[in-house]
Amino acid sequence: MSEPDPLTLAVIQAGLQQVCNEMDIAFSRAAFSPVIAEADDRSDGIYAAEDGALIAQGELGLPVFVGTMAHSAAHLARLIREGAVAPPEPGDIYIVNDPYLGGTHLMDVRFAKPVFVDGEQFCWLQNTGHWPDIGGMVPGGFSAHATEVEQEGLRLPPVKLFKRGELDREILAIIQSNIRVAEQRIGDIKAQAAALLVGEARLREMLDRHGAGTLRAAIAGIRARAADRMRAEIRRIPEGVYHSEAFVDSDGVVNQPLRIALTVTKRDDRLAFDLSGSSPPCQGPMNSVWATTCSAIYLGVKHVFPHVPINAGTFEPLEVIRPEGTFLDARYPRPVSGCAAEVSQRIAEAVFLALAQAIPDELWAAPAGTSGNFALGGFDPQRNAGYVMYQITGGGYGGNAREDGLTNGCSTIGISKTAPVEVMEQYYPVLFHRFAIHEGSGGGGRRRGGFGVHYEIELLRGEAKASFVMDHGRFGPPGVLGGGDGAPNVVRLHRGGATTTPEHLSKDQGLRLAAGDRVEVMTPGGGGYGNPQMRERELVARDVARGYYTEEQAFRLFGPFR
Q1: 114-157, pLDDT tens digit by residue?
Q2: Beta sheet of 270-274, edge-to-edge order
Q3: Against a cut of 0.85, is the pTM above it?
Q4: Which residues, listed in sequence order, are joined to residue 454 by a DSSP beta bridge?
Q5: pLDDT tens-digit profile of 11-26?
Q6: What stretches of 42-88 adopt beta strand conformation (E)?
Q7: Of 342, 336, 337, 344, which Cα lies nearest the Cα of 320?
């Protein structure tokens, strides 16, 4: 069939995206856990039946999930062809969280539903949701000291959780027997499945309206146009080789930084990304699986060129060389709980820093680049029930050529946001004493970095265990073109009248808290852009008047301003 006319292509492209948007909304509105229902730590997309290529994604989901789900769908299709996984039938929904099969960490659980037209599979509908707990050493799954993946929780290969529309109670029982607060997960499971059912209903409306042949031709045309658009953007980058590096504080086990070494080569209308000079595999859970590493490169480039429509064609002009023998190509049984939430953001940071050398007017200094993963698990005597609380937090964005960095922006990998304080206090036995700007955290520059967040939580009753997998605690987010670094992440525990800081600064696990103990976190500010001495004096004075900096901090960063 010939390619549809441009108007039909635009209508179908918008329709496919709307299908994904409705899946995103249905998932969040039906989910039980605040991390999905309030923080939107999830994503939905449509993928090709034969190879998992991305067809469309929702605007309201985490980009890093969209990239990894393409790998996951490809693995699922391959395993079905090889006979290792049962072939799909109408009404089936597969569940998988294996990081080495196109995943992230174990808490990110993927559902995949085949859609059939006239007995032939047309595509996969797929989503990922962050479950608050998946078992493992510590509540919440963020085991900062894990040395093998089995310590991080339950690992699921692709299996049919729903068979011809019916929930498999035996598989559900296995899952619930291996995770904490298991009785609450059924709400998230049904929400995740319901989102796919909504997506299938909307997609069938499009199939009825346009026909499968027209949709297939349109999908191919949309993909080709996205590839052409990305090539056009790349051609604007000067020819050359650009180098950058970024650092992970530590792996949580060995207290030494991990280096991400990136070389970007621009030639004609293509970009090649080589990470092979990065640190070797690490003992702790900061290894990154290949799907996450590749997705981090993609989302970094998409940040730079946000107007390119996103599908598999968007990434055709990008070559990512697999960094074998490094911590960015984790193989079983390497632990990986920090790969998507933290390491991926250091990879994207390296992309930003490299391309800032090539097209500085279009780039920015480094953002906070951490999800601020904080998990608290315990037993609430007032409710006579266990709980697992998971919190993510924003930070400062880097300054750019035109404006200061955003304050309390979401993480680099997506749109997830901190759940409202009121919701967290309603669900869990905690009290927020503070949720404010991390004053002084924005890096100095002609355009300063944005500010992080400063919060403090008290455990009100019972006992609990706290765990942290964060980053940028050793090094603040770098400035560019002479700009200063943003302030690093800070974690403090106030227990029994004493204040302590984790040995690994932003990573620790299983820290016992009693009623009255408090956890204090200050997330990083963004890096500054350009020479701080070139910042307008009235803007410095304004920041001081607003309490963003003390006079001493402002003088140190920007020089005299009175």
Answers
A1: 999 999 999 999 999 999 999 999 999 999 999 999 999 999 99
A2: 240-248, 258-267, 270-274, 318-321
A3: yes
A4: 436, 522
A5: 999 999 999 999 999 9
A6: 42-48, 54-57
A7: 344
